Amino acid sequence: MEERAEVRLVGRLGFVCMAAAILSGLLLGSWEMARPVFGGARYTLNPASPAQLWSYGVLQAFKSVGFVSGLFGFFLVATQRGSLLKVIMSLAALGGTFYAVVWIMIAVTARGDAIYVLNRPIGSDAHSNGGFLFLWIVPIAIGVEALFARRIPRWKSIWVIFVGLLGPRIFGLFAPGVAMVIEGVIWLALGYIVYISRRGATMRS
To answer: Second label for 141, Cα 20 to 30 Å away, from 12, 110, 158, 160?
Structure first.
């Protein structure tokens, strides 16, 4: 019974990750290409309606929930669940929470630099808003650990590492809307990997 519950949990985590990838990546990215919110300079927003800003805020907050869910699902099915990795997963949850708060504040203030900490602006840039933890660092860490754990096929672990490595580069190479779509695609695949691997959650080494 417990094992079936864990399989269902991982399946739901993968599904939430896929939903977040579709909504915050494919849908929001397409909207960004049609009606750009992000300006050219860092923390600069183009004039946008409150409805659009709140849609961005809510969907970006959901993105953090969905992507951290996908990482947690992968943690359950692919790793040995060691103490160090649990600390790393806690950092993903912390980064995701801060990311969500920042994006809600961007919607509230209609400013790209929504929060200041020690006179340092914090806004849509993932380097400052906690996004780097769950979008880049943690996927690499759990992907590498999964390679050594050998609980799932190697290509799945390599894909998760690839997600972490590609993340910080796409927004420098492409316009924001295109980058958001690409991000949505790679995280959609990660969520699918978690979903199809859900029965591995009961395979303890």
So the answer is: 12
